[in-house]
Amino acid sequence: MAAQSTRDRILDALEGLLLESSPAQVTLEAVAAAAGVSKGGLLYHFPSKEALLAGMVRRLGERADKQLADAVAGGRSISEFYLESFGPEDIAEMPLYRSALAALRSVDGRHDEVQQAVTEVMRSWDSGLQAEIDDPVQAEIVRLVGDGIFLAGLLGLPQPDPDLHRQVVARLLGR
Q1: With b meaning 16 or more CB within 10 Å and e meaning fewer, what string describes 13-28?
Q2: What angle do CA 121, 126, 127 make, to 5 degrees?
Q3: Regarding the domain delimited by 6-172, which CATH topology (the fold level of the hierarchy) does it fall under?
Q4: Coil, helix or strand for 119?
Q5: Positive or negative, the Cα torsion across 54, 94, 123, 127?
Q6: pTM for this one?
């Protein structure tokens, strides 16, 4: 297994702090200490708290893109991936979900670069759905339903019965 980069250690530390405490309590000093780097080392990779938060969100996009590519390579469609259901027990096993939850906790409306990064990540998934689904309205419906399923999973809300979920996906995808 390859050694984790300093950048990833810093971002992992940031995610952990965001998940464990109030976002207002997350400081550059606390992130540096949790990552085992000096504050100067952290600032070398991320020159501000806003850049650090935006870097975390962009890594979320990278993780999502990789997970999507793996799913498509395994024979699933983009739409099927987007409509996948998961529960709280899956979060510990999937860095993507941990990153998503931390990113959602970081969005406070005060950091323009973070807001822009979240928008870029969320909109990057639109193009795949639109390329796969001819009807732009149907593509948007799939995106909105997928966003709801994803958010419900992150928040630990009850997921639909697996058979009902399969029926919902089949209907949305015209099967």
Answers
A1: bbbbbbeeeeeeebeb
A2: 105
A3: Tetracycline Repressor; domain 2 (1.10.357)
A4: helix
A5: positive
A6: 0.72
d(CA 152, CA 5): 32
Residues shown for the chain: 175
Each residue's pLDDT, cut to its tens digit, for the chain (175 residues) gives 456 799 999 999 999 998 888 777 889 999 999 999 999 999 999 999 889 988 988 888 888 888 888 888 999 888 888 888 776 666 656 777 777 777 777 766 566 777 777 777 777 778 888 888 999 999 999 999 988 888 888 777 888 888 999 999 999 998 7
For the packed helices 95-106 and 112-132, what is the interaxial angle rounded to 10 degrees? Answer: 130
The tokens describing 112, both together, are 């323009």
Structure tokens at 105: 């906790």
